[in-house]
Write a structure and sequence with these properties.
Chain lengths: 166, 64
C-alpha cells in the first residue's frame, strides 16, 4: 500500500489533487482490530478549475499515465483497487480538512479522524456501517466533545441517538 | 464463572487488544490475510474480488 500513498503524495505536491485522506474500512482498521475489505477508499479534494465541473477524469488520466488501470469504479494502483471519492458534502470537507497526519512505514499520509469516521458511518447508514459503528464504540477511545460537536454541526444527533440506543 | 471459560475469554480479549495495537502495515497485512480466506468463498458466489499484494513493510510474525 505504500506505493499507492507515495503516488498520492506526489499528486498532492503537483496539485493533481488538492488534498487526500484515507477513509472507509482501511481508515477504520487504523483504529480498531483489522477486518476484511477489498478496497481502499481515498477521499479527495479536487483542484478548482474555474467554470469547469469537477470530475475525476484528470486524476484518472494522470494515474493511467503511470500504468494504473481503471476497472469499474476502482483504479488499480500497484495491485491495490483504490476507490477515489471526491469531497461531496460539508461533513466530508471537514473530515478531510481535519484528517490526522500519520506515517505508513516512513511514508506520510492522512487518515480521517475516528469521530469523523463515526459521523460518516451514521450519515451513510448502510448495514455494514452499523456493524462498524458498534465495533468503533466498543474499541475506540473517542473525543466525546469533538464527536458531539460534529454530530450537531451536521445534524446527525437524532440518528446518533437512534443507533447508539440499539 | 467457570475458570476455564474465564481463561479463554481473557485470552480472546488479549488477542483482540494485541490486534488493535498492531502497526498500520501489520494491520493491512492482516486485512490481506483475511482477503485470502474470504476471496475463494466469494468467488464461488460469482463475486469477483482482488487480493492485494502482500505488504512488504509488515512483520508476518506479529499476526500469529
Amino acid at each position: 500500500m505504500e506505493g499507492v500513498l507515495k503516488i498520492l503524495n506526489e499528486f498532492e505536491r503537483e496539485g493533481k489533487v488538492s488534498r487526500y485522506a484515507i477513509g472507509g474500512a482501511i481508515a477504520a482498521t487504523f483504529y480498531i482490530e483489522p477486518f476484511v475489505t477489498f478496497d481502499l477508499d481515498v477521499f479527495v479534494v479536487l483542484p478548482q478549475t474555474q467554470g469547469v465541473l469537477l470530475t475525476l477524469g484528470p486524476l484518472y488520466r494522470a494515474l493511467e499515465s503511470k500504468g494504473c488501470v481503471a476497472k469499474g469504479e476502482y483504479m488499480n494502483i500497484e495491485g491495490t483497487p483504490v476507490q477515489f471519492l471526491p469531497a461531496h458534502n460539508p461533513l466530508i470537507d471537514e473530515a478531510l480538512e481535519e484528517a490526522s497526519e500519520v506515517l505508513y512505514g516512513e511514508t506520510p499520509t492522512r487518515v480521517l479522524r475516528p469521530e469523523h469516521l463515526l459521523a460518516i458511518m451514521i450519515q451513510t447508514g448502510r448495514p455494514k456501517d452499523r456493524q462498524r459503528f458498534a465495533s468503533f464504540l466498543e474499541q475506540v477511545e473517542l473525543d466525546a466533545g469533538s464527536l458531539q460537536a460534529i454530530l450537531e454541526r451536521h445534524r446527525l444527533k437524532d440518528k446518533w441517538h437512534e443507533w447508539s440506543s440499539q | 464463572m467457570n475458570p476455564e471459560l474465564e481463561r479463554i475469554l481473557a485470552a480472546k480479549t488479549a488477542r483482540r487488544e494485541r490486534l488493535r495495537n498492531l502497526s498500520f502495515p501489520d494491520k493491512v497485512q492482516a486485512v490481506i490475510e483475511l482477503q485470502k480466506m474470504v476471496a475463494p468463498i466469494l468467488r464461488t458466489r460469482n463475486i469477483q474480488v482482488e487480493i492485494w499484494p502482500d505488504e512488504p513493510l509488515a512483520n508476518k510474525d506479529n499476526l500469529i
